[in-house]
Amino acid sequence: MQELLFPTPIWQFQHPDPKACLAFGAHVLALQGQDPIGLQLTNQGGWHSSTALLQDPLLADLFHWIAACCQGAVQEWGWDLRAATPTFNNAWAMVNRQGHSTRAHLHPNSLLSGVVYLQVPEGSGAIAFLDPRAGAQMLVPPWLAAADEGVQGRVRRLPKLGRLLLFPSWLWHEVEPSGGEGERICISFNLGMRPTAGSAPAA
Known about the structure:
The chain is of the alpha+beta class. The chain has one domain: q2cbj1_9rhob like domain (Jelly Rolls). It starts with 10 loop residues before the first strand and ends in an 8-residue tail after the last strand. The model has no long low-confidence stretch (mean pLDDT 94).
């Protein structure tokens, strides 16, 4: 009998309104027009916005939906919401065009991270999650081609309009180069937690 220890959760949600997602994506392109240089962090080419998008009133409805998804995810995970509630740390947008990618990274000082896709032309780069266990790739057996992606140490998820992926912030991930025309637009975010009032034990 096989037993799996320490599984890594990845949640997936689907936004109910594709037209709204496209409108959010158009707003991201307008933000890029106002700040064409953006930030250079883990992005290899492409455009990275500031990390202050939580303050943008035109994205408030999107973040309300994301917050509801995250609330459901952490409850399913077993989080005791009587002791602490999830809170946004920051959020930013990414615009990738042909050949643009993001190198492998994780998100320190956060509990959960996520991405929602607002425009996904054909050929958009997939996100790939990497095995975070330090010794897992030390000696690799000859896997069959049909072996599960997870045991091979790299699991891909294709972007889709309105798709939200949520995962632990310590999970290494990267974005493959986009190969098609048009802009691959997404918004990413980090979550932390805030202790609930009155939850601290008495001295």
